[in-house]
# Entry
Amino acid sequence: MKKLSLTSWIFIAMALGIAVGHFLPDVGKQLTPVSNIFIRMIKSIIAPLLFATLVVGIAGSGSAKAMGRIGAKAIIYFEIVTTAALVVGLMFVNLLKPGVGVALQSGAPDPNLPTTHLTFASILEHTFPNSIFDSMAKGEVLQMVVFCFLFGTACTALGARAEPVVKFLQSLAEIMFEYTKYVMYLAPFGVGAAMAATIGNKGINVLGNLGKLVLTLYGALAFFVIVVLGLVIVVTRIPARRFWHWVKEPYILAFSTASSEAALPMALENMQRFGVPKHIVAFVLPTGYSFNLDGSTLYLSLASVFVAQAAGVDMPLSQQIMMMLTLMLTSKGVAAVPRASLIVLAGTLATFKLPVEGIAIILGVDTLMDMARTSVNLLGNCLASAVVARWEGYDLSQPPAELEVEPAVH
# Structure
């Protein structure tokens, strides 16, 4: 039993959770607090870990110019890959037409549907912190990145005078990684409880309703991972087997919890063990959580055309391309505002005069789709950190000797 990895325990917990939710739905519904406790424990790690690793990474780079160069390369990569994700989403939804035949009922709007529209001004304003403590308390990752970048740059400029602060944060980062290891022992319980609560509340049919839409999304995401990200791995000469060895556990954790935040601490540590330098992974990974959400951008393009198909609206290719260009901008802030995926989708539907009520259909299976797109978001950002490291000239075939160990949690 002790030889089972965390991945194995998570799969066992998922299966048990589905069984409990189906056969004992009342028990499954009561397990929601267990899942929430695990997510809350994970969220308690993010602010101190992100602050410590990002500041130490930037200060360790020794140059604000170097970090600016890394940031520029990351943004270029983000733009290329997210555009590819949008194209794949449109390709699959037009090829398989999952919305054709789905009855879109109009009526009183669902009070749970978002009504706020994202604008470039609101996204830009939301990027900058009003208070770093408020940003940490609310888990505003992008705001923390902005503050930490400036704080780390200031430490670099002060040199030796900032050394006590940098050393303290280095110790804090090591403590938080150890703290993460303890929290991850709760992962199977949190994952099992989340599955039991979902199935208990919505029934086993949540795994089958609107099956064509779910399968279309999963197929599109699989194509994106294998073809697009696979091509990136080949072109940049990243060792695929070693990369998967280090990314599989945070990937499965992101899938099973449908939470990018749950997998962030482990992803930060494992990518360093893979060989990506600390100052690169500490900057690229959290920044990508706002600007490189490959799974979410693919989902947005697919879901928008799905609603058009369900409503019987014929969208010509020119209009779909215009929608893709719109999503290229609006999807960049998809993690900066709560429930932003639905807000972006609602805004896109309204812009192109499609029925916002279509979101109500998607909500029925959104949990199942969220698991897939969240895990691809995580995978894409781990790969982004590796790509930027390769562009900076680092050899990832062999990591630093002191980091070449097995994943921290088993």
